[in-house]
User: Which sequence fits this backbone?
């Protein structure tokens, strides 16, 4: 069937509107699904007076430290208790020297453990003292979501 050009144009416009609407609804659904994970960010920002970016990156750095220190099956339990764990881990700032290929730049790229946490906090504009302020909030959050046994795993790691 042949459509005149004005109908064809209107049809293409309607098609674009429908596709855009579907995309908006899908995005809204994703945000709703992650709303529970935002509880942690809300707690960190309100209790510590920091930005969402700092909260996400700082939590990610500490969760990554726990991932390094815990056996994988234990970290899996923590990860199950924290909605969007991958989002937190992805929010850790790059620790490289901003294109610095010198010895110091390469050394900071390979940081692990607590030095990586303090370097991430520094890149986020957070002091080292903030690490100690984050940890009880993370432990309490995991306790609420996953129970005392799971939060105990984090407590052990953070008290080293």
Assistant:
């Amino acid at each position: 069937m042949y459509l005149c050009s004005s109908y064809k144009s209107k049809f293409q416009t309607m098609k674009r509107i429908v596709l855009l609407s579907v995309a908006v609804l899908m995005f809204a659904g994703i945000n709703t699904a992650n709303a529970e994970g935002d509880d942690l960010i809300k707690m960190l920002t309100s209790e510590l007076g920091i930005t969402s970016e700092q909260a996400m990156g700082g939590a990610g750095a500490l969760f990554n430290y726990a991932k390094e220190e815990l056996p994988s099956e234990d970290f899996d339990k923590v990860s199950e208790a924290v909605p969007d764990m991958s989002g937190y881990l992805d929010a850790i700032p790059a620790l490289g020297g901003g294109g610095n290929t010198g010895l110091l730049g390469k050394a900071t790229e390979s940081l692990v453990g607590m030095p990586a946490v303090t370097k991430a906090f520094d890149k986020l504009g957070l002091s080292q003292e903030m690490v100690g302020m984050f940890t009880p909030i993370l432990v309490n959050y995991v306790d609420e979501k996953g129970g005392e046994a799971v939060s105990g795993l984090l407590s052990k790691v953070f008290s080293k």
